[in-house]
């Protein structure tokens, strides 16, 4: 009999709600494959509270470097504010650990390329948390679309219309370019349009608008975009935190069927609906039904895919050029919105102001306004 793979030694950085909730739940779901050995938190009281919640013998640290030197984890889960992600991810990679980091993985394409360089130097990998890709409904939809079973993708709509009040933006790092990286384009809608890109593939052109309609923030509180894909499909993308009726939605009209996903913060099989075109016989649609096994989109689902990649010694999903495409889309949306000009894939390179900052030093949007 072959030996069972050893449990990976895991450390978490940050012990706020996303870590103590979603990441801890994911680790418990994969307790046969992971062992939480350490937590890093600058607030000693919150650190002790998390250690009590996690149970076991979780070592506590207030310094990331000290933890990496002492514990040498295989995997580091990062759930700190966005401005810390690049440096913490690079430090973990340099120690040889793989990383799973909350979105956005970093604040600019320049920072993303710093992470890519650290990956290349270390041989380890960093993935961004895009858990909506990993539910069984999303996996099934992508298989149907990419196989051509639903026909050519034609028209799509991606909607993240949420509501955040002034109390939400009272948290000092929110709504600021230097600490959050942007508004709902970076921090909220990124989950949905990442899934849209995952389903439809390579994008080629973006035209966009953005505005501050309600909140007194540096960044936008709403953005809209028109997107052209390499396969010819056209899409609209809406990102909002000023919408009282909250919903997350993707609709893709293909030649043979419309596929729709409607949810809020996570989806299961029942949230996906397929409508056949009139010329499609009923017997053909049997394969379109969602899978018998229902795997909700979750951190646990993505962690499972990452652990599979680790055990196989291959690049995990949601990393590398795959995840960079989503970051480039965000930068392109901002550049198109702030300049009023269309932006094409591959256009934003070193030397472009939108390569180093999502606001591109635009006089109406940069922090110095």
Question: Could you characterize the architecture of this molecule?
Answer:
With 369 residues, the protein is an alpha/beta fold. The chain folds into 2 domains: 8-128, Rossmann fold; 134-301 and 325-356, Dihydrodipicolinate Reductase, domain 2 (2-Layer Sandwich), CATH 3.30.360. The chain contains 12 helices and 14 strands. An 8-stranded mixed sheet has the order 13-12-11-7-10-9-8-14. Strands 3-2-1-4-5-6 form a 6-stranded parallel sheet, sandwiched between helices. A hairpin with a 2-residue loop joins strand 11 and strand 12 (257-263). Helix 1 packs across helix 10 (299-312) and helix 4 packs parallel to helix 5 (109-122). 47% of the residues are buried. One of its GO terms (molecular function) is oxidoreductase activity. Pfam families: GFO_IDH_MocA, GFO_IDH_MocA_C3.
Characterize the main sheet: 8 strands, mixed
Report helical residue fraction: 25-40%
Tell me the strand percentage band.
15-25%
Integer-rounded radius of gyration: 21 Å
List the total number of helices: 12
Report the top-level CATH class of the largest domain.
Alpha Beta
- What is the N-to-C order of secondary-structure elements (H for helix, E for strand)? EHEHEHEHEHEHEHHHEEEEEEHHEH
Q: How many strands in all?
A: 14
């Amino acid at each position: 009999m072959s030996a069972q793979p050893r449990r990976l030694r895991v450390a978490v950085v940050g012990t706020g709600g996303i870590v103590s909730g979603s990441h801890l739940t994911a680790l418990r779901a994969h307790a046969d494959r992971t062992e939480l050995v350490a937590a890093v938190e600058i607030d000693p009281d919150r650190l002790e509270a998390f250690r009590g919640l996690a149970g076991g013998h979780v070592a506590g640290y207030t310094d990331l470097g000290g933890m990496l030197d002492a514990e040498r984890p295989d995997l580091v889960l990062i759930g700190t504010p966005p401005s810390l992600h690049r440096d913490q991810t690079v430090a973990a990679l340099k120690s040889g650990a793989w990383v799973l980091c909350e979105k956005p993985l970093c604040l600019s394409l320049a920072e993303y390329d710093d992470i890519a360089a650290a990956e290349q130097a270390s041989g380890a990998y960093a993935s961004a948390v895009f858990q909506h890709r990993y539910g069984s409904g999303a996996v099934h939809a992508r298989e149907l679309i990419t196989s051509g079973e639903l026909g050519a993708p034609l028209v799509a709509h991606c909607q993240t219309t949420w509501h955040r009040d002034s109390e939400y933006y009272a948290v000092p790092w929110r709504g600021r370019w230097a600490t959050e990286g942007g508004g709902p384009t970076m921090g909220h809608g990124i989950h949905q349009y990442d899934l849209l890109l995952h389903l439809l593939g390579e994008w080629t052109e973006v035209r966009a608008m953005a505005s501050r309609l309600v909140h007194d923030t540096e960044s936008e509180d709403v953005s809209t975009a028109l997107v052209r894909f390499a396969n010819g499909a056209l899409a609209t993308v809406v990102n909002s935190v000023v919408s009282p009726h909250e919903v997350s939605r993707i609709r893709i009209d293909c030649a043979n069927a419309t596929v729709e996903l409607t949810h809020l913060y996570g989806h299961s099989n029942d949230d996906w609906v397929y409508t056949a075109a009139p010329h499609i016989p009923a017997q053909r649609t049997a394969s379109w039904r969602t899978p018998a096994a229902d795997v909700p989109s979750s951190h646990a689902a993505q962690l499972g895919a990452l652990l599979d990649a680790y055990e196989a010694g291959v690049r995990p999903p949601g990393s590398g050029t795959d995840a960079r495409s989503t970051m480039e889309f965000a930068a392109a949306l901002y550049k198109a919105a702030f300049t009023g000009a269309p932006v094409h894939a591959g256009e934003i390179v070193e030397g472009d102001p939108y390569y180093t900052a999502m606001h591109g030093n635009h006089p109406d949007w940069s922090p110095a306004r």
